Amino acid sequence: MEGETGKATVSWENGMLAPVDRLRSDRADSPTPGLVEGTEPGAGQQSAIFYHAQSYEDLTAQAEEEAQRAPGSDSSAEHDEEEFNALVGEKSAKERLNSEASSESRTKEEDVSSEAWRSHKKHVFVLSEAGKPIYTRYGTEEALSSTMGVMMALVSFVEAEKNIIRSIHADGCKVVFLTKSPLVLVGVTKSGQSEKELLRELQYIYYQIVSLLTLTQLNHIFQHKQNYDLRRLLAGSEYLTDNLLHRLERDPGLLLSAVTCLPLASSARDVVSSSLQAAKAKNLVFSILLAGDRLVTLVRKKDQFLHHIDLHLVFNLVGSSSSFREGEGWTPICLPKFNTAGFFHAHISYLEPGSELCLILVSTDREDFFNMSDCKQRFMERLSKRSAYQAMKEALKCQSYSVVQVGIPELRHFLYKSKSSGLYTSPEIPEVYQSDEEQERLMGLYQDLHSCLHHPTRPLRSFYRCGEAENLLAMVTSGFELYLCFSPLATKALAYSAVNKLLKWIRREEDRLFILSPLTY
Amino acid sequence: MLMISPKMASGAQDKQYTPSLLSFFIYNPTFGPREGEEEKKILFYHPSEIEKNEKIRNVGLCEAIVQFTRTFCPTKPAKSLHTQKNRQFFFEPEENFWIVMVVRNPMIEKPNKDGKPPTIEYQEEELLDTVYGAVVRQCYSMYKLFNGTFGRVMESGGVELLIQKLEKFFYRYLQTLHLQSCDLLDVFGGISFFPLDKMTYLKIQSFVNRVEESLSLIKYTAFLYNDQLIWSGLEQDDMKILYKYLTTSLFPRHSEPELAGRDSPLRPEVTGNLLHYGRFLTGPANLKDPEAKFRFPKIFVSAEDGYEELHLIVYKAMSAAACFMISANVELTREFCEQLDGLVGPQLTLLASDICEQFTINRRISGPEKEPQFKFIYFNHMNLAEKSTIHMRKTASVCLTSVHPDLMKILGDINCDFARVDEDEEIIVKAMTDYWVVGKKSDQRELYVILNQKNANLIEVNEEVKRLCATQFNNIFFLD
To answer: Where does the sequence pass through the membrane (chain A) (predicted)?
Structure first.
């Protein structure tokens, strides 16, 4: 098992491996010739912020590794024990989670044999390898225990043949299985979503659970007691998974394996970044400033990279809990793509009451609360003297930007991802897609395009679809991914010329839309 | 089928295995509902030498999958199960009768050093559900063509007879399945029509009318030339499967004697019959033979009150083939066959050379034959017409396509996309190999074009396809 844990521990000691200069897959032929990875609009001038891999493919590869994981081979057992105790000792955090749960009491009481339950667009189930229910999106785990038992029976039946179950397909319904020992995740979709997309979402759910417990602890628990009821440990945290599922249906960042930024003049952003950089501490690894779901800036320890999945889990944690608004929060969090074995400790606080700006300071030390609190004070003192703070608050007030500003007729919406920086930009959802249903449909369209372009064995350079409701164009080059959504009136010629026009516009606006000069301590 | 991949340079070679049939079984869960009686559910199992308990286990898994899927989707049954090593396809053609086909994913075997067993890598994304789902449905349709429904056999002879019939049919049929060469054309299961001028078409129609009038026993007639259909009196769905049988099984088996010279020993006895080239492809090989048996295969086609059973007479002269179908209640005699031979033989011979001549003239007008400029597949759901310039020759055993298999799979992917929504659509993709693939769906028609113009852009590709539509499908409207 030279897999996950091994790699993670090593990198923990030696610093995260810098983003490997990924195989520059021969995706030449970009619309702007000569545009190579790292020079596309939005590419950072220095090193990347994230440890980002080629979208989701790496996750699937890893699934295999982990499936073959031999139990009990974790190298950092002592360390784990300590972390385990750390979690148990972390009463305050757990209590906070619990109170959160009661306040947001989930409407789960649903008859699981009813048509209403069946007709939900997407179900997600998590169970232990003993077939014990851990999570269900709709209905209660108790009512579904026999269904989950059947799921586990199917998994083990196929496993007994030295095979792995992947999915079941019926007309208009797909069931996807993901075995991530000691957990089994099952997703059911009725929306025509591809198997790969659903699998990606299950991976996120898996990491969400790991981020609450660490994989080491998870393994530890099930090694000791195979039919342990994990809900006892996760009680009160279901809302995080619920919210993450909601995000997966709405947030293009999770689809693109990228993060979007608050549009802000680069001068202002640089001041904020350098203020964060100055407020450093010995055990501080990441300082993250968020504005809602958008990143303002991220300062990191030299040679430590944050994976986009980890960052999305942080976004989810912050976005799902209102309790952080009440003061300074201090919570353990495992960043599974960084290290599945241990916890970081995050100091989470809003800059001002009622503000959207939330500062997250990630430390390696459990006892670091006051140091982090001090860092925040220093940052605030520095920032409040500068006009950049005001600029940032102004930027928050106005909406992001409208697609009309780009000046391409018939263009309704787009997603642009700079591959080397792991950042993406997209305008606001236009009127036509404002309703929940339409917004999810638009995301569904993007998911389909994404699936087609990133087909595991038959990837495509570009994909154009002309239908009755809209015309879509998607393309991948070595430097960027681009997804365009036009009205059905747009012609192919228009769509074709829009690519260059849009790239030029993004280049012109890149100072504002992206973080071009990320800083380290 | 084993192919050695040439790309390994390190001495040790990767072995590449194409998809293959792992098992094929038919069961009815209501036949052995009690514990200990599970074996009674199984009506057919290939390979038969599999141990009884394993058969029961595999059937059990299918039942469980079907049952489990009903939790979420009570009305639409499970169609396939994907696993790392294989895919299983489920089909319930008649209530409670399930046909299951298990296909192993293609795989690559990589040798290991130090005498360790080789590493096997399964290629899980290679099989298209639509293609193999269609293959299973075709298996059933073919069985039904020659045996009628499962229910019919159950009524006439119970489970024992059904088991016998299934054994007899599938034992042979499964050997003709060539899973590695299945593609989009299997999804369509279309019929290739022979292009013909009006005059010749009328000649054929009047021939059919004359024969049907003289031999009033004939209920239905179908006329083919060069393995392509010209005229059919059958229902579309029946013709579709009969066409499949004729072109992939019956005709290929009988093509050799025609290619052989006149005096070749391969050529069946035609002495004494120099007036025409007509001969029976089903029934008696030689009318003059006093031992000749006048037995024809029986087929089942749909009729107003369910189905009707017919004798299938296939009679061929040169490249023209006529199928005559006669109610199975009638016993066919030597006299009838001689009468048919005497009437149809000379006329069909003449007609065959007429069609050939017309066809050559037409082709001369439209330009000499060359590698088609466009590689495309066209299918019309309304009349099942299909046309492919990608497939050089397609029979059950040989499938020569002129394009890379990955491109064929991209066509399949686009087809799946089209099937999802019931509206007109166009999809244009550029593959990593820089080939462009265009798919259009309009009304009930689908057109797929492959273009090898690496430096073309979206607009140029669009223009090319427009040109193709103008020359090949000038009367068909496609969404632009």
So the answer is: none
ipTM of the shown complex: 0.89
Quick check: is A68 in a domain? no
Q: Which residues pair with A411 in a beta bridge?
A: A486
Pair A302, A333 in one domain:
yes
Contacts of A492 in chain B (CB under 8 A): 428, 458-459, 462
Domain range for A209: 109-249
A23 in a structural domain: no
Query: What residues in B contact A168, CB-CB < 8 Å?
Result: 65, 68-69, 78, 80-82
CA distance A457 to chain B (A): 7
CATH numbers and ranges of domains, chain B: 15-182 (3.30.450.70), 198-255+275-366 (3.30.450.30), 374-473 (3.30.450)
- End-of-domain residue from the set A367, A396, A425: A396
Do A286 and A306 form a contact (C-beta atoms < 8 A)? yes
Radius of gyration of chain A (CA): 23
**β-strand pairing of A423-425 with A259-260:** parallel
Nearest CB to A118: which of B72, B82, B125? B72
A123 contact B CB<8A: yes
Which residue from B minimizes the CA distance to A493?
B459
Q: Is the pLDDT of residue A67 over 50?
A: no
Check if the beta carbon of residue A351 is closer than 8 Å to that of residue A359: yes
The pLDDT tens digits of the residues spanning B260-290 come to 444 444 445 444 456 778 889 998 888 888 8
Give the pLDDT confidence of B362-372 residue by residue, as tens digits. Answer: 777 665 445 45
Tokens of residue A436, six digits: 């929940």
pLDDT digit string (tens) for A152-186? 999 999 999 999 999 999 998 999 999 998 999 99
- Whether pTM exceeds 0.80: yes
Q: Is residue A158 part of a domain?
A: yes
**A190–B64: do the CB atoms touch at under 8 Å?**
no
Stretch 186-215 of chain A: residues touching chain B, C-beta under 8 Å: 188, 190, 192, 195
What's the start-to-end Cα distance of chain A, in Å? 34
Above 50 in pLDDT, residue A2? no
